[in-house]
């Protein structure tokens, strides 16, 4: 059983009775890396999350945008602030802004007025496989319009949460080199979904290249596999290799709940993280489970869930 304070570096809330999230509300389901996601097409609010984290010493959480109605990105930020004022969660948030949109500057300025906002996530266009990459594709990290919006993040003090397959990490490293003042937080361990020997070799090489960039970090999360329960046996090597590549000071553990409830219980996932790192010692684990998230997401000491 995990016996450390936890700041969950990546989690979500949604109220589908009040708010429109197309991917959770519309039919048919979109293609999703975990397969059928009917089980999470229901409200998930702080009461549900506190139930799922009851066995943890929860010290805070980082809410990450949920692909809310793209016509109203600031609406989600306003809703999250109202939720936090009522429920005490989340502690901080990562909002959305379409970086390649003509109004990106205006949206970023509006988002920056909200005190819990620490960064932005806008999933760049991604190729379905390494051999299908198209340099400069619209909406990609090498698209001039997308980069024009990205260039505005530093002025607002925002970090950038990057969710992209590992084969785009060369682009991400170049993005960091061109805009080194903006912290890039890689989501979900670089998405090592292909667990074949070749797939993992490509993932390790890409992660190593990206980790060489000076202002990047990674969230060890989202390690589920469709149809396969989350297990330490399946994920220990990836957890440890990620820590070896980035260094423990640049890694954060996160639940990705409720999305990862499709593959495992939250306690199972966090206990797995603890077991995978037990030999690293208490101070390293304390950083992985809370200290690094507190630092990267600028959560004041003493702020609790």
Automatic annotation (TrEMBL):
GO terms for molecular function: hydrolase activity. Gene3D superfamilies: Metal-dependent hydrolases. Residues 7-299 form the Amidohydrolase-related domain. It comes from the Bacteria. PANTHER family: AMIDOHYDROLASE, BLL3371 PROTEIN. Belongs to the metallo-dependent hydrolases superfamily. This is Thioesterase. It comes from Phenylobacterium deserti.
């Amino acid at each position: 059983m995990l016996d450390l304070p936890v700041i969950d570096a990546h989690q979500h809330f949604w109220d589908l009775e009040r708010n429109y999230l197309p991917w959770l509300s519309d039919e048919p389901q979109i293609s999703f890396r975990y397969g059928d996601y009917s089980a999470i097409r229901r409200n998930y609010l702080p009461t549900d999350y506190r139930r799922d984290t009851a066995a943890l010493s929860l010290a805070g959480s980082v809410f990450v945008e949920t692909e809310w109605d793209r016509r109203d990105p600031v609406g989600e930020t306003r809703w999250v602030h109202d939720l936090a004022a009522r429920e005490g969660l989340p502690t901080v948030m990562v909002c959305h802004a379409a970086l390649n949109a003509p109004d990106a500057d205006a949206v970023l300025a509006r988002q920056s007025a909200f005190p819990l906002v620490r960064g932005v996530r806008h999933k760049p266009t991604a190729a379905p496989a390494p051999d299908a990459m198209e340099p400069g594709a619209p909406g990609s990290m090498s698209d001039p319009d997308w980069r024009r919006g990205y260039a505005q993040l530093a002025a607002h003090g925002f970090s950038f949460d990057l969710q992209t397959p590992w084969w785009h990490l060369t682009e991400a490293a170049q993005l960091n080199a061109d805009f080194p003042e903006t912290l890039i937080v890689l989501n979900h361990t670089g998405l090592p979904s292909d667990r074949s020997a070749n797939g993992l070799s490509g993932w390790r090489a890409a992660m190593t290249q990206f980790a060489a960039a000076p202002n990047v970090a990674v969230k060890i999360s989202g390690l589920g596999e469709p149809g396969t329960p989350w297990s330490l046996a399946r994920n220990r090597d990836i957890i440890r290799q990620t820590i070896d590549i980035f260094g423990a000071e640049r890694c954060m553990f996160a639940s990705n709940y409720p999305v990862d409830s499709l593959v495992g219980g939250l306690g199972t996932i966090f206990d797995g993280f603890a077991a995978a790192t037990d030999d690293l010692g208490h101070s390293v684990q304390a950083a992985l489970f809370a200290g690094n998230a507190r630092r990267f997401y600028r959560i004041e000491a003493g702020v609790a869930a």
